[in-house]
């Protein structure tokens, strides 16, 4: 085998499955609403909040609170570094899949 | 969007990056030696042991201890359920990559 194993290119902040879900969905739009993330990923509000906080502290997403009419809303948007980190994760996953499908002999 | 998000098909037992590394490498051979896993994945012995135990408790790998001459050795082999779980993880990752490259409009 040559070079590091593909899993060594994975970062737990991004790789954790719920955070990977949040980043992937956030990358598809300018911003996504908290309730949409919650229902799409089937998470409790507390669990989703916790994972968004980890991503926010790492600078990978930004959180904006506001109102839609009278209803308070929380919006999540992916940052530039968030897009970079997600692209790196996806590249590592692609390398892992390629290796799994074509194992070293 | 239709159907559950691809990350909902990920299982933390398999998805955690070091355990994903262990399973991927174990799937490439009949059995792999502890020291080989340790150097390939760049883990401490304690950290690697802990992740192998999680996989063993879930029935995804088997652990055999023996000797190579006088040197004690630990061998790890993937089980049938381990291969099934890894295949499901890889299928979910493939779905995630496909969605990321072709986001829903």
Automatic annotation (TrEMBL), chains A, B:
Domain Winged helix DNA-binding per the UniProt entry, residue ranges: 19-96
Superkingdom of origin: Bacteria
Pfam families: HTH_34 (PF13601)
InterPro entries: WH-like_DNA-bd_sf, WH_DNA-bd_dom, WH_DNA-bd_sf
Alphabetical list of PANTHER family matching this protein: BSL7504 PROTEIN
Protein name listed in UniProt: Transcriptional regulator
Species, as recorded: Saccharothrix mutabilis subsp. mutabilis
């Amino acid at each position: 085998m040559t070079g590091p194993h593909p899993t060594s290119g994975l970062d737990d902040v991004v790789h954790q499955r719920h955070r990977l879900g949040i980043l992937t969905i956030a990358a598809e739009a300018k911003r996504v609403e908290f309730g949409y993330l919650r229902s799409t990923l089937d998470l409790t509000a507390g669990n989703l909040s916790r994972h968004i906080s980890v991503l926010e502290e790492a600078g990978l997403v930004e959180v904006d609170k506001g109102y839609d009419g009278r209803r308070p809303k929380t919006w999540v948007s992916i940052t530039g570094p968030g897009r970079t980190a997600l692209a790196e994760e996806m590249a590592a996953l692609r390398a892992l899949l390629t290796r799994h499908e074509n194992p070293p002999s």
